[in-house]
Amino acid sequence: MTRSDYRWQQMKIQMQTQTTNRLGSRNESGMTLAEVVMALMIAGLAVIGIIGGYFYCTRSAEKSGLFLAANARALERLEETRSAKWDTASWPQVDQLVATNFPSKNIILDLSGSGGNAISATLNTEITQISSAPPLKRVRVDCIWVFKGVERITNTIETCRAPDQ
User: What is the Cα–Cα distance from 143 to 74, expressed in whole angstroms?
Assistant: First the structure.
């Protein structure tokens, strides 16, 4: 073997070694089935968590909207009691702020623009005398409703009222 043949053989061996080192051996070229299954399980758990979070957020948003609707209806009833005439300075005295003028009332809680199911609720108004000198009454309005047929919720608003001046 001549010197140039020897060099040629050396370069050929060196090139083959570099190519093998770059590509790796045949055993290291891919993923095993166990690695693929583990990757799919981790991805599946992440997707399940994202879907669960989505359902929780939509349920919370619906419940929050119904809370606001119930609160608005209770405030509406409270304003009705504020408009009742109660005048102790006139003769005869006028007192329309009594519980019999505000009986329990069944209402519908509707989320505007949702087009979904309307929830029925009950408005209860309680009026009690706090003191007679000075005359002062407590007005309490409860809006009672059931969320998803499971959870009973009550929105309550209270205020005190003096006679008309």
Answer: 6
